């Protein structure tokens, strides 16, 4: 090998060594930056943490089931309505469901239940109630204590007004965080999301069109998300509810509550 070649070889080795050392320095700097940032983040007991402190967790059964849909073994579908009750629309939904003998699951906001107890008292026979937080805050932004206290407060309000303790929980916006999971587990909830959402803004002033869209997309085991309060555009879905019900029945679907959908061998419940 020539002296010139040996020189280039030494320079290449030197460059490689500097790259390795530089990479280590950068890696160490990045790691230090990460720790500097996250040391100040309330991970333990905060929104990200699914554990609370170093003591006994006290999480009920110690397990949490999260579901988006039910088994696809039969042509069953569950209608769910969030954010109520309220006097503007909840009675309309209950009237439609009663007229068509359709059970549904209502994920209720505790503060709304307290404020509008008369809307649902005596009107929930055949239906199911679930917890949807106290004030519809984003629970994924709360720490473990706050998330649990919010759910507990709503749980107690729903139990007092409706006469039954909720067994299901749906987080506002579908947002999950460790503290949300921890709080739900402490209350022995089954956490229910959804597999199909009503999309009212896509069908302004077209209740029939919206109903057709939902009917076309339902599959066995679908959990449908709707709302019985909110912006006026949501009335498109509620006004099209009879078409939705009739359309799904014409395709052989039976309406059930979420718990019936998820519980094998449970007979469908109908509103009398």
List keywords for this structure.
272 residues, alpha/beta, TIM Barrel, three-stranded parallel beta sheet, 10 helices, 43% helix, 12% strand, disordered C terminus
Query: How much helicity do the residues have?
Result: 40-55%
Q: Which architecture name does CATH use?
A: Alpha-Beta Barrel
Chain-averaged pLDDT: 86
Number of domains: 1
Low-confidence stretches: 18-28, 264-272
Pfam family, one: Polysacc_deac_1
InterPro entries: Glyco_hydro/deAcase_b/a-brl, NODB_dom, Polysacc_deacetylase_ArnD, TAT_signal
Protein name: Polysaccharide deacetylase family protein
Domain NodB homology: 75-256
Protein described:
This is Polysaccharide deacetylase family protein. It comes from Micromonospora tarensis. Residues 75-256 form the NodB homology domain. With 272 residues, the protein is α/β, with parallel strands linked by helices. It has a single domain, classed as TIM Barrel, CATH 3.20.20. Helix content is 43%, strand content 12%. The protein has ten helices and nine strands. Helix 2 links the parallel strand 2 and strand 3 (105-108). It starts with a helix and ends in a 10-residue tail after the last helix. Mean pLDDT is 86; it is low at 18-28 and 264-272.
């Amino acid at each position: 090998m020539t002296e010139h070649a040996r020189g280039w070889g030494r320079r290449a080795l030197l460059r490689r060594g500097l790259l390795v050392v530089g990479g280590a320095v950068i890696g160490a700097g990045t790691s230090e930056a990460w720790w500097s940032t996250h040391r100040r983040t309330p991970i333990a007991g905060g929104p990200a943490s699914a554990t609370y402190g170093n003591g006994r967790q006290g999480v009920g059964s110690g397990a949490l089931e999260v579901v988006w849909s039910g088994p696809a073994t039969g042509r069953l579908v569950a209608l769910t309505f969030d954010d109520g009750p309220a006097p503007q629309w909840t009675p309309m939904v209950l009237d439609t469901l009663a007229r068509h003998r359709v059970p549904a699951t209502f994920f209720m906001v505790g503060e709304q239940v307290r404020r509008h107890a008369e809307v649902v008292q005596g009107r929930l026979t055949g239906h199911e109630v679930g917890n949807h937080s106290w004030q519809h805050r984003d629970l994924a932004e709360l720490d473990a204590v706050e998330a649990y206290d919010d759910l507990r407060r709503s749980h107690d309000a729903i139990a007092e007004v409706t006469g039954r303790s909720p067994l299901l929980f749906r987080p506002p916006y579908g947002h999950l965080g460790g503290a949300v999971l921890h709080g739900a587990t402490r209350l022995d909830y089954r956490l229910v999301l959804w597999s199909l959402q009503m999309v009212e803004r896509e069908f302004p002033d077209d209740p029939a069109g919206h109903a057709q869209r939902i009917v076309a997309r339902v599959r066995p085991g679908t959990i449908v998300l709707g709302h019985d309060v909110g912006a006026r555009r949501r009335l498109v879905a509620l006004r099209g509810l009879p078409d939705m019900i009739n359309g799904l029945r014409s395709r052989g679907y039976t309406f059930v509550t979420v718990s019936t959908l998820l519980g094998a061998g449970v007979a469908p419940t109908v509103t009398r």
